[in-house]
């Protein structure tokens, strides 16, 4: 119900125009976005602060209870204050409103009450849908905070799109943990130089076997005279060749997988792992403009937390 009401609000010309103005102010702020709110709105404000910060918009949470005890000093003339309050009448917000007015700090409000203190004081006020709370007594902030949360995400996503915030940018702010691992490029995991097994197509089965054993990746690339990948020869190919009682002096080109699937150094490691699962393989060769430049093994990706 709350999300439907928020979606319907975006259809209204005044609401959408105000949203564009608000996002424009946030986009062009020279300092930081100071996000504030009390109670459940404060919890949403903390989440909104974290989302903005991690997606390229410098933001900081200001607790209203601490604002009047010195924390207002964190707010500078280059900042903008984003204030969340469903009722718009939380007394704890008073000192922040007064500070913004005294020092001409832009004040952006999010409230459901157009005649409230926050709505009247804000330079730009987003009038949120005045939804009924979903709790049995229609009192506990539930539906209203869901609307606030979704609206905050809409702001963050809009700013990301306006900035052209890419997966590379996202990884810079999320280098650790599983999420960071999903955004790492293949070049950070691949073997290079002498660690990449490779033979020419004229090499013998024995030479290919020796090269596979040396590199311990379970296969070897087969390249042409220009260093371009033209085939792959794996443990499985070797077993099939031996089972067929082939002479180990025969050329590996007869038994290789022709034009194997490859990946580039700038592809995501998660894409490489997905391709391995899809093709039921454990080794991928890495090419740049067709030339062999590396190799990546499934175990290395899994050990790094890529999924």
Please tell me the CATH architecture of the largest domain by its name.
3-Layer(aba) Sandwich
> Would you count the extended β strands for me?
12
Structural class call reads: alpha/beta
Distance between the termini: 35 Å
Mean pLDDT: 88
β-sheet strand percentage: 15-25%
What series of H and E elements makes up the topology?
HHEHEHEHEHEHHHEHEEHEEHEEH
* Number of helical stretches of at least 4 residues: 13
Provide the CATH superfamily of the largest domain. Glucose-6-phosphate isomerase like protein, domain 1
**Approximate helicity band:** 40-55%
Description:
- The chain has 307 residues and is α/β, with parallel strands linked by helices.
- It folds into two domains: 2-165, Glucose-6-phosphate isomerase like protein, domain 1 (Rossmann fold); 186-303, Roll (CBS-domain), CATH 3.10.580.
- The protein has 13 helices and twelve strands.
- The strands form three sheets. A five-stranded parallel beta sheet has the order 2-1-3-4-5, sandwiched between helices. A four-stranded mixed beta sheet has the order 6-7-8-9. A three-stranded mixed beta sheet has the order 10-11-12.
- Helix 2 (13-27) packs across helix 7 (143-163) and helix 3 (40-54) runs parallel beside helix 7 (143-163).
- The protein is elongated and about 90 Å long.
- The mean pLDDT is 88.
Sequence-ordered SSE layout with sheet pairings:
Blueprint: H1 2-11, H2 13-27, E1 33-37, H3 40-54, E2 59-62, H4 64-67, E3 80-84, H5 94-102, E4 107-111, H6 117-121, E5 124-127, H7 143-163, H8 167-173, H9 177-182, E6 198-200, H10 205-215, E7 219-223, E8 229-234, H11 235-243, E9 257-258, E10 262-263, H12 269-279, E11 283-288, E12 291-297, H13 298-303
Parallel strand pairs: 1-2, 1-3, 3-4, 4-5, 6-7, 10-11
Antiparallel strand pairs: 7-8, 8-9, 11-12
Helix pairs in contact: 2-7, 3-7
């Amino acid at each position: 119900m709350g999300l439907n009401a928020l979606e319907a609000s975006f259809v209204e010309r005044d609401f959408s125009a105000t949203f564009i103005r608000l996002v424009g102010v946030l986009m062009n702020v020279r300092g930081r976005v100071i996000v504030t709110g009390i109670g459940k709105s404060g919890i949403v404000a903390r989440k909104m602060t974290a989302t903005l910060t991690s997606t390229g918009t410098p933001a900081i949470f200001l607790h209203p209870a601490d604002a009047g005890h010195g924390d207002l000093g964190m707010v500078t003339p280059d900042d903008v204050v984003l204030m969340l309050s469903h009722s718009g009448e939380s007394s704890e917000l008073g000192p922040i409103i007064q500070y913004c007015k005294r020092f001409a700090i832009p004040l952006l409000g999010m409230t459901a009450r157009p005649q409230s203190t926050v709505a009247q004081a804000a330079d730009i006020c987003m009038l949120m849908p005045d939804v009924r709370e979903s709790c049995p007594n229609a009192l506990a902030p539930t539906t209203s905070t869901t609307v606030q949360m979704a609206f905050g995400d809409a702001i963050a996503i809009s700013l990301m799109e306006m900035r052209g915030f890419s997966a590379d940018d996202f990884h810079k702010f999320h280098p650790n943990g599983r999420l960071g691992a999903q955004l790492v490029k293949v070049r950070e995991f691949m073997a290079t130089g002498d660690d990449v097994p490779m033979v020419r197509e004229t090499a013998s089965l024995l030479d290919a076997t020796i090269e596979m054993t040396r590199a311990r990746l379970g296969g070897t690339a087969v390249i042409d005279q220009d260093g371009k990948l033209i085939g792959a020869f794996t443990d499985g190919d070797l077993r099939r060749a031996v089972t067929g009682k082939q002479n180990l002096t025969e050329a590996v080109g007869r038994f290789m997988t022709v034009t194997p699937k490859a990946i580039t150094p700038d592809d995501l490691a998660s894409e490489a792992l997905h391709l391995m699962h899809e093709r039921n393989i454990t080794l991928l060769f890495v090419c740049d403009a067709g030339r062999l430049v590396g190799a990546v093994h499934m175990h290395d990706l899994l050990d790094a937390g890529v999924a």
